[in-house]
Amino acid sequence: MTGRNVPKATLRRYPIYLKALRKLKNQGVNKIMSKELSEQVAIKPTTIRRDFSLIGQLGKQGYGYDVEKLIEVFSNELGMSFDEKIILVGAGNLGKALLNYNKWSYVVGEIVCAFDKYPEDISNLSVPIYSMDELKDKMPEGCRIAILCISTDIQNTVNLLINNGIKGIVDFTHEHFLTPSNVNVRSVDVVATVQELVFETNYLNEG
Fold first, then answer.
1. What CATH code would you report for 84-192?
2. What does the angle CA 182 – CA 186 – CA 188 come to, to the nearest 5 degrees?
3. 8-78: CATH number
4. Which one is predicted more confidently, 16 or 55?
5. Strand 129-131 with 168-171, pairing
6. Rounded to whole angstroms, how far apart are CA atoms 191 and 134?
7. Rounded to two decimals, what is the model's pTM?
8. Residue 89: strand pairing partners
9. Pairing state of beta strands 109-116 and 129-131?
10. Phi, psi angle pair for 195, to nearest 5°
């Protein structure tokens, strides 16, 4: 990410643009106008042009934007690459479900392998699966992101991941664990999200 003073609301829209642009490229689209992109992302064309202007002169009036160039720019801004290698830790029911959505709509990369305490009990995975004891030797080169779907020995597993180069963890455990300040953790709590949605829905209905 660059050092420019970009508003947080704008930063939150960057991944939305990137996802849409990569899908458009997949469909063979080479250039796009802000109005056309607006229809893809449900964001006003004026907002899109303003967001883009914070990065630089990305398009030409009357011509639009080069899709390939925009993908490169936003990938650099977000530090994201299609080649990002992700590992799955815990290949139970949730882990298997996540693998069904592998490649993440061609946005950031893909899960390249899984680790589990009992890999011999797991079959029919779309990626190789290894024992946790093999993590040091089987960790993909350059891997920085792990998806954590385990229910036991969580802190020790997190320590092992960090010691082997993991800098970002997507956490489905719902358990508290400690990480150094240079490791980013994003917790996914489906129950809490549903609770918030129920509350907001009821509140809006009452209003």
1. 3.40.50.720
2. 165
3. 1.10.10.10
4. 16
5. unpaired
6. 33
7. 0.65
8. 115, 148
9. parallel
10. -60, -45
Residue 73, classed as helix, strand or coil, is helix
Number of H helices, E strands in the chain: 8, 9
Sequence-distant (6+) residues with CB within 8 A of 92 are 116, 149
Q: Does residue 65 contact residue 24 with C-beta atoms inside 8 Å?
A: no
Q: Amino acid letter at 73? A: V
Tokens of 138: 């089987």
Residues 169 and 179 sit within 8 Å (Cβ to Cβ):
yes
Residue owning tokens 């939305």? 16
- Local structure of 54: helix, strand or coil: coil
Report the distance separating Cα 128 and Cα 119, nearest Å.
10
**Domain parsing of the chain, residue ranges:** 8-78, 84-192
Q: Which two tokens stand for residue 36?
A: 């056309």
pLDDT in tens, 34-87: 999 999 999 999 999 988 888 776 766 667 888 998 888 887 777 665 567 899
* Residues facing 119 on adjacent strands: none
